[in-house]
Task: inverse folding
């Protein structure tokens, strides 16, 4: 089984660390996918230099206009998803409603899916 984490912010790394400990995940069986946004470059460098998270994959976030202006952005992520299709995947994501999470779920169809939520999203869901 491969454990794939999808995060986009530094505070979500705590959730990753907690899941690794809870599920006793070995570094060799995990992949950390990080969505690169404008303000998380230092965080990405920190993770890549730590060598504590197995394979680390970075993808650039995209918006609807990028589908036409920069199609390589979303295509990279779709190709990444296709890489994991038809494999036994344990998926852990911090975003339950982002395009990347929804695409990953629909393309890969992971065996198990866990939402890692530190609680802040719960308020917006309630509202």
Result:
């Amino acid at each position: 089984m491969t454990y794939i984490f999808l995060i986009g912010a530094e505070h979500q790394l705590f959730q990753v660390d907690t899941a690794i400990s809870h599920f006793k995940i070995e570094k060799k069986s995990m992949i950390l996918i990080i969505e690169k946004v404008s303000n998380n470059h230092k965080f990405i460098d920190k993770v890549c230099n730590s060598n504590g998270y197995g394979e680390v994959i970075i993808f650039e976030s995209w918006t609807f206009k990028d589908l036409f202006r920069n199609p390589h952005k979303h295509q990279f992520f779709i190709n990444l998803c296709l890489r994991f299709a038809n494999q036994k995947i344990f998926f852990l994501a911090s975003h339950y409603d982002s395009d990347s999470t929804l695409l990953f779920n629909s393309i890969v169809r992971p065996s198990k899916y866990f939402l890692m939520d530190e609680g802040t999203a719960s308020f917006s869901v309630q509202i």
